[in-house]
Amino acid sequence: MSLYIVVGYGPAGAATARLLAGQGHTVRVVTRSGRAPEPGIEHVAADATDAARLAETARGATAIFGCAAPPYHRWTKEWPPLVAALAEAAEATGAVLVMLGNLYGYGPVDGPLTEDLPLAATGPKGRVRAAVWERVRSLHEQGRIRAVEVRASDFFGPGVTDGGHLAGRFMPPLLRGKAVTALGDPDAPHSWSYLPDVAAALVEAAGEERAWGRAWHVPTEPPLSVREMADRLAAAAGTAPVTVRATPPAVLAVASLFSPLLRELKEIRYQFDRPFVVDSSAYRSAFAVRSTPVDEQVEATVAWWRERPATGG
Q1: Is the pTM of the predicted complex or chain greater than 0.70?
Q2: What is the DSSP string of 40-87?
Q3: Spans of the chain below 70 pLDDT
Q4: 89 close to 95: Cβ distance less than 8 angstroms
Q5: Are 17 and 42 in contact (CB under 8 A)?
Q6: Which among 1, 4, 14 has a CA at the least distance from the CA of 64?
Q7: Are 205 and 98 in contact (CB under 8 A)?
Q8: Rounded CA gap, 153 and 297, in Å?
């Protein structure tokens, strides 16, 4: 079995670490504060922007998974040094660098998102995500590191809490049969990345040499609007269909005065005001991981939220 380094322990980092540990590998998770050890998982407290410390922690590792993310409102300042340290550690150790990416770098696009689209984002968060991947890809092409980026849409599923659009602000009221709110048009088709599929794709890409050197989209089910997802979730929960309300732009503008997160969401509002559809056919044609059927996604998510005390379930 191999040693793997997972940097960051948010939903994707935790799911990836637990998947690897479940496969019998040794897993070392790097976060600022560290945690108590878990079966098969060692937690190390370290600053991931300290390239020397990260390289020391990753010595002997097969792959480094970059699953950490700065606070949303500090992306432009903190993404470049974080990714620079990840790349330096990969170069120093020879470990494959597996970047968890997102779809911001494309910017607004008419039609489905494919990996061959230009990274033409005009907003600051989209530009910085594009820039750090281009830097990593350049190092790969120079032969200095081996790297791959796996891009996900909005996370959904067990383990996704505060940061998800179908999570902390959505699931507890839905389980009580109460109205829920959506950013943008609740009837616009939208692609959702199921968290276990994200972890599975990251792990598979790490071990597939032919995946390296480019970006891939996480295998994703056909798009469903927020309203359609709410209907499916309510049906799985055995509650009556809930009312889904759009957040009026004026309300969002006022709330943004008091919330850094809501201020930052204005840049990617386009993803919810119109269809936002991921094409993951390139991944499906090349590799083994497949997206989990949406009914299974919904049932597992409802069950997970019902086990949380905050849901009252």
Answers
A1: yes
A2: TEEEEE--TT-HHHHHHHHTT-SEEEE-----GGGHHHHHHHHHHHHH
A3: 249-263, 309-313
A4: yes
A5: no
A6: 4
A7: yes
A8: 15
Alpha carbon separation from 40 to 16, 20, 73, 131, 220 (Å, rounded): 12, 9, 34, 34, 29
69 contacts: CB under 8 Å, gap ≥ 6: 8, 10, 75
The pLDDT of residue 312: 38
The runs of H, that is alpha helices, within the chain are 11-22, 51-58, 75-93, 124-141, 171-175, 195-206, 226-237, 249-256, 260-265, 270-273, 281-286, 294-306
Strand partners, 26: 3
Residue 311, pLDDT score: 41
Give me the amino acid identity at 152. Answer: A
So what's the pLDDT on residue 269? 85
Tokens encoding 199? 């972890």
3-state secondary structure of 104: helix
How far apart are alpha carbons 20 and 199 in whole angstroms? 9
Parallel/antiparallel/unpaired status of strands 41-45 and 26-31:
parallel
Interstrand relation of 41-45 and 63-66 (parallel, antiparallel or unpaired): unpaired
Q: How high is the pLDDT of residue 183?
A: 87
